[in-house]
Design a protein that fits this description.
With 342 residues, this protein is of the alpha/beta class. 37% of the residues lie in helices and 20% in strands. It has an eight-stranded mixed sheet with strand order 5-10-2-1-13-15-16-14, sandwiched between helices. Strands 3-4 form a two-stranded antiparallel ribbon. The structure holds adenosine-5'-diphosphate and N-acetyl-L-glutamyl 5-phosphate. InterPro entries: AceGlu_kinase-like_sf, AcgluKinase_fam, ArgB, Asp/Glu/Uridylate_kinase, Glu/AcGlu_kinase, NAGK-C. Residues 62-304 form the Aspartate/glutamate/uridylate kinase domain.
Length: 342
């Protein structure tokens, strides 16, 4: 007797069926498949309708998306990212992509046998390394993203911080273990003229920005700037409605690397306090979010770029998936982000 023989509930078991159940007819099978397909279609429709309040709220909204090099290493993820950005555009938002490319720069430096080291989270940049940074960001990573976006229609236009004086930067050093460190050709963005980006947006297209910046103090010299902070400066100058930073973790953790300490929401003051406790990679991201929100961008999000379509989930669902940073006087609930479209 097989283990799954049905029980009568009276201590005895029912006799095993003597003949197999009749095989389902083609019509019954087709009916079952149609019912399942209908259920899937209904779920899709519910998902679309759930996005409606956000689509209404974000109509025309300018969203600056920072796409980090670590979230850009897998072809499927890159394709999903391109789909999401084009989706935002076709849904009536105005996305602007600002990309990094740290791992891609490193790979090229390794191929060329050039050494470079990071100090305080920034790459020490010699003139030779600067040539590679410029070549990889504008000539490789930017081009590739433009190509991926344009697979969905002729929407994307690439430019760098050098075009139409989009960015102007000044050289910076850093302090590591109490010591002043010369980073070479590394700068902070000090001026932003967003008119070239605005022109591309006004044409209904998607600007894709590589973060190379002319040196304001030395004509003809360009500087290597951190892509997170450049994205924040651009978001503030464009008066963006959101800054979305895609990276390779779920969001910001209160107590990194304790996976149970993922933060759903943070105020700018909370983010400033946390700066003391985060490690190298997250410092420029947190600084970028603080910079953008304290200069008038209503919300900044840190989202997992390894999760396909995480950006859409963060923007268009009640639960969200990453960490949202908002002004101190914003009353949005921290834990769930519920209450209003985030
Ligand atoms: N509190 C924190 N929350 C999340 N990540 C953190 C935190 N502190 C440090 N990190 C590190 O920051 C990294 C993200 O920065 P980075 O590797 O520079 O990303 P990207 O290439 O996307 O710019 C994470 O992978 C993680 O190792
Ligand atoms: C000064 C400095 O460190 N610049 C970065 C620029 C690229 C970048 O920021 O890329 P991610 O966003 O992928 O980290 C670098 O040379 O790697």
């Amino acid at each position: 007797m097989s283990d799954d023989t049905p029980s009568t509930g009276l201590g005895a078991t029912a006799p095993a069926p003597t003949s197999p159940a009749p095989a389902p007819t083609d019509a019954t099978l087709r009916g079952a498949i149609d019912a399942a397909a209908l259920r899937v279609a209904r779920t899709k429709a519910t998902t679309l309708v759930e996005a409606l309040p956000w689509l209404e709220q974000f109509r025309d909204a300018l969203v600056v998306i920072k796409y980090g090099g670590n979230a850009m290493t897998n072809p499927e993820l890159k394709a999903a990212f391109a789909q999401d950005v084009v989706f935002l555009r076709y849904a009536g938002l105005r996305p602007v992509v600002v990309h990094g490319g740290g791992p891609q720069i490193q790979a090229m430096l390794d191929r060329l046998g050039l050494e470079s080291e990071f100090r305080g989270g920034l790459r020490v940049t010699t003139p030779e390394v600067m040539e590679v940074v410029r070549m990889v960001l504008t000539g490789q990573v930017g081009r590739e993203l433009v190509g991926l976006l344009n697979q969905h229609g002729p929407v994307a236009v690439g430019l760098s911080g050098e075009d139409a004086a989009l960015f102007g930067a000044r050289r910076r050093g850093t302090v590591v273990d109490g010591e002043e460190v010369d980073l070479g050709l590394v700068g902070d963005v000090e001026t932003v003229d967003p008119s070239a980006v605005q022109d591309i947006l006004d044409a209904g297209r998607i600007p894709v920005v590589s973060t190379i910046a002319p040196d304001l103090d030395h004509d003809g010299q360009v500087l290597n700037v951190n892509a997170d902070t450049a994205a924040a400066a651009l978001a503030a100058a464009l008066r963006a409605k959101k800054l979305v930073v895609l990276t390779d973790v779920e969001g910001i953790y209160a107590d990194w690397p304790d996976r149970g300490s993922l933060l759903r929401g943070l105020t700018v003051s909370g983010a400033r306090d946390l700066l003391e406790r985060v490690d190298t990679g997250m410092i420029p991201k947190l600084e970028a979010c603080i910079h953008a929100v304290s200069r008038g961008v209503p919300q900044a999000h840190v989202v997992d770029g390894r999760e396909p379509h995480s950006m859409l989930l963060e923007l268009f669902t009640k639960e969200g998936v990453g960490t949202m940073i908002r002004p101190d006087d914003d009353e949005t609930e921290d834990e769930t982000g519920e209450g209003s479209p985030s």
